[in-house]
Amino acid sequence: MNNPFENALTQLQRAASVMNLDSKIHEKLQSPKKVHTADITITMDNGSTKTFPAWRSQYNDALGPFKGGIRYHPGVTEDEVKALSFWMTMKCAVVGLPLGGGKGGVIVNPKELSETELEQLSRGYVRAFYQHLGPTKDVPAPDVYTNGQIMAWMLDEYEKLVGKHAPGMITGKPLSLGGSRGRDKATAQGGVFVLLETVKKMEMNPAETTVAIQGFGNAGAHMAELLSAAGFKIVATSDSKGAIVYDSGLDIVALTEYKEKTGSVINFNGAQTITNEELLTMAVDILVPAALENQITADNAGNIKAKMIVELANGPTTPEADEILFKNNIVVVPDILANAGGVTVSYFEQVQNASNYYWTDEEVMEKLKKIMIAGFEGVWSTKEKYTIDLRTAAFVTALERVSAAMKARG
Ligand code: NAD
Question: Ligand 1 pocket, 291 CB below 6 A?
Fold first, then answer.
C-alpha cells in the first residue's frame, strides 16, 4: 500500500534536488512542526459511548497561520493527515497566500452517525484541539465528508470556549455565519481556470475535448458542472459505489438532481456502469481525479490514455506513476496547483471576516481568477526553466517561497 507521507517526502526530495534546497530547510521540512492527537468520546443515540481517534497536524507556519481542512473518513491515518498538511503548506505557497499548512482527520464513517452524533463529534474535535486553533494560529476548513454545517458547529463551540466572536477561526462556513460567496465552487472553479490555461498551452479545443471525472462530490460535481457549461463533454464520472459512462456526454444538471435523490450516480438514465478502475484508463482527453489518494499508481499509469490529468483530489498520483506519465508525455496539472482554488477562497473568507466587510460573487471570482492564473504562470515558467514536470515545478515554486520565509525568520 502506498503511504501518502512517503510519497510527499519523495516529491519534496525531487524538487529539493532540482533547486538545490538548503539542506537544513530540507531537513526541517521532512516532518511536521507538531501533530496533536486526541480520542473523542461521544454518547451515541442509543445511550452507549463510542471513541474516535483524531489528529491535527501543523506542518509549517513560516508564511502564516496553519491552514487546512478536517477529513472524516473510516480510513484516515496519521501519515495521511501529515501528508495532507505538507501538501497544504506547498499549496498555499504555490499560489502566494500568506498561510502555512495544516490538516485534521477523524477515523469515522459519518454516514453511520445521526445528525446529533455528528454534531457531538464535531464539537468534541474543537474541545480537544481549540487551544491550538484560532484565526492567527491554525484555521480548519471542510475536506472529505465534512461540510458547512460541521464548520458552523465547530465555530460555535470555539466561540463558546474562548468567550468571543472569532469567525476567522474556520472557513467554509455557511454564508449566515460569515462564509464567503463562491466557496462551494471555489476548488472546482480554480481547477477550471488552470485547466483552461493548460488547454491553451496544449492547443486543445474545448468543444472537441472529452473529460472523465473520478468522484462526484463537492470538487468533482462542481467541476463537471463548470466544464460542461464551458463546452467540454463529460463522458464519465463516479462515486464510491462505481462509475458511469455516457459517450455522447452526461447531462450534469440532471445527474446532480439524480445523485441528490438517490445518493449515487449509479444507474443514471441510459448510462453504462463501469468500475472506478476502468474510468481511470478510459480513452478520454482529460482525466480529473476528484476522490481520494493513490488512484493512479505504477499498476495503472501505463494504461492511462488521457493527454492531461488535472488533480482536484489531493495526492491521487504516486511518485512512481508520475515517472511513467512523464515518459508517456501525459501532462499532470498537480493537486497543489489544480485544487488551490478552495484554500484561496478560504483565505478570502478570512480576509472578509477580519474586515467584517463582504464581497460579491463577481469580486470573489475576479480575485480568484487572478491568483490562479498567476500561480499557473509561475509554475509553467519554472517547468520551462528547469525542463521538469509540472508537479516538480509546482514544488520548486512553493519551496522557494517557504524557504525564503524560513530563512528570513532566522
Ligand atoms: P466529497 O466528500 O464531497 O466527495 C468525494 C467524492 O469521492 C464522493 O462522490 C465519493 O463518493 C467519492 N469517492 C469516495 N471514494 C471513492 C472511490 N474509491 N472511488 C471513486 N470515488 C470515490 O469530497 P471533496 O471535498 O469533493 O474532496 C474530494 C477530493 O478533493 C479530496 O482529495 C479532497 O482532499 C480534495 N479537495 C477538496 C477541496 C474542497 O474544497 N472540497 C479542496 C481541495 C482539495
Answer: yes
Residue range 175-192, pLDDT digits in tens: 999 999 999 899 999 999
Nearest Cα to Cα of residue 181 among 370, 371, 367:
367
How far is ligand 1, taken at its centre, from the CA of residue 288, in Å? Answer: 11
194 and 264 both lie in a single domain: yes
Active-site pick, 67, 91, 103, 233: 103
Q: Does the beta carbon of 312 lie inside 6 Å of ligand 1?
A: yes
User: Does 46 map to a domain?
Assistant: yes
Q: Is 385 considered catalytic here?
A: no
Backbone angles phi, psi at 52, to 5 degrees: -120, 120
The torsion of the CA quartet 378, 382, 388, 392, rounded to 10 degrees, works out to -60
Residues 305 and 222 in one domain: yes
User: What is the sign, positive or negative, of the torsion defined by CA atoms of 372, 373, 377, 383?
Assistant: positive
Atom of ligand 1 nearest to the CA of 264: 11
Average pLDDT score over residue span 36-55? 98
Q: Identify the pLDDT of residue 1.
A: 59
Is the distance from the beta carbon of residue 238 to the nearest atom of ligand 1 less than 6 Å? yes
**Domain end residue (candidates: 288, 316, 338):** 338
d(C-alpha 11, C-alpha 94), whole Å: 14
User: What pTM was estimated for this model as a whole?
Assistant: 0.95
d(CA 356, CA 313): 32
Same domain, 239 and 154: no
Domain ranges, residue 195: 186-338
Domain shared by 202 and 317, yes or no = yes
